[in-house]
Amino acid sequence: MPPVSTLSTMFPPSPKFTERNLPSLVGKVYIVTGAASGVGFELAKFLYGAGGTVYVAARSAARCEGAIQKILQETKSKTKGQSGRLESLVIDLSDLASVKAGVEDFLRRETRLDVLMHNAAVMTPPKESKDKHGHDLEIGTNCLAPYLMTLLLEPILIQTAKAPGTHANSVRVVFVISCLQEGFVPGGAMSFDATGTPVILTDKFMANYMQSKNGGAWLALHFAEKLGRHGILSVSLHPGLMRTELQRHWGFGLKLAMSITTKSPVYGAYSELYSGFSPEVTPEHNGGYMMAWGRIGELTNDVKDGWKSEAKGGTGAAKKFLEYCDRETKTFL
């Protein structure tokens, strides 16, 4: 596959897979984290409009309910035949206990899960920000919480993939990451200290965020390897450059530049639709990397080298990262 150009990365071609391409989603169930605003909100609105049962996951009941009421207001008379169902799912990704409690709540209410969309993230928070357990906030929110959530939901994902009437390759896990094209990220996928804990990178703007997103790419590869034999696809996704709440910690100048040069969140929802629903995404792409606004991409050499063991010519960094994830989440399983 030829490399995607920098220009094409910054200014992707128009989306070809949109809400108009969705089939009826009646009877199907979806979780979208970070669905109270931005890209996740737009995706939840699309899935509800196509008849799906959508769990609007956010860090508080007020944010979940506010988003649900807004979706209902914005989709009046616009649904495809039978409208879907919207449900609140309170999950604070900065608190692994909240992740466990939220998943347990979901499992009491549902018997299937068709797509798990790890949309939520935190980017460039104030220096030394931590999650509830003392982890770096970006690593904790962007890596540990999605890892634990996927582990806890594995049984229902497998059950759904095997259920009568479930279409092949339709059960998916999507890890929304960032632009991992060569030249956009610092050299080396992730740095570790002597204990195998990711080092917090503070020397360059967004370096720590980007290494957390490299971790997300490894999570997609890990669950592709683990769940692929059950017919479940797991991919990572660069949703595109957009103006969203992710930039809330940026200064006025950077926010202004994003508002002028980038797209609205609905375009990121098109990227997520493609990764979660397009028939172009097949087992051949399991573990792969998707790009805005719905294209097959290519992982960086750093991520691919990290995935390979040292014995096979790689760095073995992904193995160290996954051992860290196991160590930090095991008490919540």
Give me a quick take on this structure:
The chain has 333 residues and is of the alpha/beta class. The protein has helices at residues 6-10, 38-49, 61-74, 96-109, 137-162, 207-227, 252-261, 265-277, 301-307, 317-329; strands at 29-33, 53-58, 85-90, 115-118, 172-176, 233-237, 289-291, 295-296.
Molecular structure report:
The mean pLDDT is 90. It is globular, with a radius of gyration of 19 Å. Helix 5 links the parallel strand 4 (115-118) and strand 5 (172-176). The protein is of the alpha/beta class. It is built from ten helices and eight strands.
Task: Please supply descriptive tags for the structure shown above.
333 residues; 10 helices; single chain; 8-stranded mixed β-sheet; alpha/beta
Topology:
Blueprint: H1 6-10, E1 29-33, H2 38-49, E2 53-58, H3 61-74, E3 85-90, H4 96-109, E4 115-118, H5 137-162, E5 172-176, H6 207-227, E6 233-237, H7 252-261, H8 265-277, E7 289-291, E8 295-296, H9 301-307, H10 317-329
Parallel strand pairs: 1-2, 1-4, 2-3, 4-5, 5-6, 6-7
Antiparallel strand pairs: 7-8
Helix pairs in contact: 2-3, 2-8, 4-5, 5-6
